[in-house]
Amino acid sequence: MIKPKVLFIEDEEDVRNAVRFILEGEGYEFYGASNGPEGIAKITKFDIDLLLLDVMMPGIDGFEVCRAIKSEPSIDLPVIFVSAKAEATDISRGFALGADDYIIKPFEPNDLLNRVKRVLEKYHRLRKIRSGN
Fold first, then answer.
1. Which of 94, 97, 103, 104 is the most interior residue, by most CB within 10 Å?
2. pTM for the whole thing?
């Protein structure tokens, strides 16, 4: 069975490492990036299946990363924001930019795993429909 590849763009290394531990423990292949440009480069390089994305990062914030990814027709990638920005306007903005989910930090590991699994299953079904299989 192929392990789904998950990229987490997060500037805080301890948060990236915690998510790495959670996801790798469930059989996901984990990739991390500390900023937007590094993460965008890894999306195509490693054929990522799901993007986890922090909002507050130096330079290019997560909203701008999401906008860039969703505006690129060659990239069909689900996005889950993982952020401490918990205001309704932030969450609405994330969904308006095309996010599939929005998880507020701090989060429970099982909640993260359930949402990752749900979004990956949804995208897998949509890709099968699009390909006619």
1. 94
2. 0.95
Beta-carbon-side half-sphere exposure of residue 2 (alpha carbons within 13 Å): 8
H/E element, 24? helix 13-24
Q: What structural domains and CATH numbers belong to the chain?
A: 5-131 (3.40.50.2300)
Instruction: List Cβ neighbours of 19 (8 Å cut-off, separation of 6 or more).
Output: 8, 10, 30, 52, 82, 112
Nearest to 10 by CA among 33, 42, 44, 38: 33
51 closest CA partner among 81, 14, 21: 81
Burial class for 59, CB neighbours closer than 10 Å (0-12, 13-18, 19+): exposed
**Residue 37's Cα: distance from chain center in Å?**
15
In terms of C-beta density within 10 A (0-12 exposed, 13-18 middle, 19 or more buried), how is residue 20 classed? middle
Strands annotated E in 34-113: 50-53, 79-83, 101-104
* In contact, 38 and 11? CB cutoff 8 Å: no
> What is the tens place of the pLDDT at every residue in 43-78?
989 999 999 999 999 889 999 999 999 999 999 999
